[in-house]
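Appendix B, record 7
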Amino acid sequence: MLNILRSVVLAGLGFLKTRCRLAIEVLALRHQLGVLKRSVKRPRLTNADRGLWVLLSHRWASWSDALVIVKADTVIRWHRAGFRKYWAWRSRPKGGRPAIDPQIRALIRRMATANMWGAPRIHGELLKLGIRVSEATVSKYMPHRRKPPSQTWRSFLDNHVDTLVSVDFFTVPTVFFDVLFVFVVLAHRRRQIVHVNVTANPSAQWTAQQIVNAFPWDTAPRYMLRDRDGIYGAKFRNRMKNMGVNEVLIAARSPWQNPYVERVIGTLRRDLLDHVIVVSEQHLRRLLRSYLDDYYHPCRTHLSLSKDSPAGREVEQAEMGDVIELPVVGGLHHRYTRRAA
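Structure tokens (predicted):
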């Protein structure tokens, strides 16, 4: 009997010791949670964490007493949000039209971006390609424009390349630290510099006269691309209007919108002007004419002309002789041709 009594007492003491240890452990954990709550203003919880506490709030009567990291109202708000999402998922439409292929959507956007087309035009083009979609679908996937579509500068230049010239000024310093102004007129079709002249005092009247000299009689171009420099004053504009030339002005401070003449000016600098010291107007004018007549027009190849020169250059076959080297522009450049031995 004493042995049984001793066993019961030991078991009770062990139980009390276990409860005491458990209470101390809970106290230590609650203290750590209090420290964590003071350190972190807003703990990061996942949807699984929120779901666990929503489930505990329904299954455990004392759940709010053990809740430390958030308030009990927050758990209730999680439950209501989950309720709304659940019924939104249950109420989602299960039918409807199937989504069209991503490649077709990309094609619609590409057509709308590359062309000045609306939905009917794109829809007709798709039908001709064997792609059967509704016009409403085309409208849905077209990029929205805030203003009516217009052609790009590239399209404008390509469409008017035969009747388009560009003009521009650039400066050249002299040996005496004066500044000379070079006026260039470039025809886009064959990248030919149809006119170039030099002056120390440019004016609107002088500039207009250069256009007259470049295009005598009825040879004036239909379009002229230029910047908004003040040198193109009222006299210049009136002369262009009388000649039937339509002036196309690029945006302010946007030389990239007049790329061909800017590229030609860079070519003149790299091929010639960076390697000489200009003495006077006559000297610069003579250098430019020599460069254009002896090298640029008859010899120099261009990427935009399929590696041909502006004036056109015949292909010389091997049977025409050996390759010889002819210096041009004072030896700055050379022309290579075939001559019979």
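Remarks on this record: Strands lie at 164-173, 179-187, 192-199, 223-226, 246-249, 322-328, 333-339. The chain is about 45% helix and 15% strand.
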